[in-house]
Sequence to fold (389 residues):
Amino acid sequence: MKTTLKTSITVKDICEGFVYNELEGKGLFGLSGKLTIQPEYQRNYIYASDGGKREVAVIESLLKGYPIGLIYFNKISESSLEVLDGQQRITSVGRFVTDKFAIKDENGMEQYFGGIAKDKKAMILETKLLIYECEGTESQIKEWFKTINIAGVPLVPQELLNAIYSGPFVTLGKEEFSNTQNANIQKWGAYIKGSADRQAIFERALDWASKGNIDDYMSLHRNDKTINELKKYFNSVIDWISGVFTDVESEMCGLEWGRLYETYHKKSYNPKKVSEEVQKLYGDPYVNNRKGIFEFILGGSADTKLLEVRVFDDATKKAVYATQTAKAKTKEKSNCSHCAIGHDANKSKVWKFDEMDADHVAAWSKGGKTAAKNCEMLCKTHNRAKGNR
Ligand SMILES: [Zn+2]
Fold:
């Protein structure tokens, strides 16, 4: 790969013909059309988020004469360049000189580029940038792009995969799943954690459709001209979740919906009954893990381990053990009630405290409380045999 350091390109040159696309959230072109600022494998513009602190910081650096760091271009031909690294900074500058956002002056007044003093304008426009122009094959450039992004604001794994498998499929996928203007994003966000512009939804869609093999799936579909299969699968999962669970609870966000869909979508559920059960479990003080409620219900309300139902504390267990054991000794029977009614040698065995476990007499799932009155100590074997009802 060949690299050339350029030191004479100014902010003014870069901003010549700058276009910002509000819908895609991308700075598109600069350098009189010669420069593509955000090629399809680049992340969206993120410096305007969080109140725009980062884009303001870029402009303040220019005004103070601070360097804004190295910028890397990929030279595609004599008349065409792409930004490999620096697109956030370039987009900040381009957005400022086209009056897309304001900075505060020394009196705390908001000032757009069009309104600031001539010398300040000149200072920004005449700033020379440090730019490396690189020439190489697609794979060299991508490998290198991967390396430079290990430093700086790291790319999330899906952004990296988008770079590696850039092409029509990724472009369409981002248009559908990473476009914050898409009206569905809010609905999807109820079930999927992370932000759409950092590829969280696209990543989940790929993860579900590929059953966890995103890499292979992207490689296989890289040159597809449609994302219909991906969309169809993704929408089936979303429709299934919102069909079974009519209430949206915050604990639903980020669950393994892909796996749950694969496991349970062929079973039928009564959404009204499901909703009642969800509400009942939300109101149950013994349920320690609310995230487990959804899988618990999908699986037929049997696996109480998913709910991490509150267990008996040590003081309760010891008190119950003492009473039970004293009683058993007077009768010369085992202190495990199940052993006591048996016919083998254990029928008169007195188990030690740590050889026993606490059991709900009336199962928690049938309304039994986690209180001393409902606690019985059983030998480990019998407790295990009784299981989690
Ligand atoms: Zn026993």
Notes: The pocket of zinc ion is lined by residues 336, 338-339, 378-379, 381-382 (CB under 6 Å). The chain has 17 helices and eleven strands.
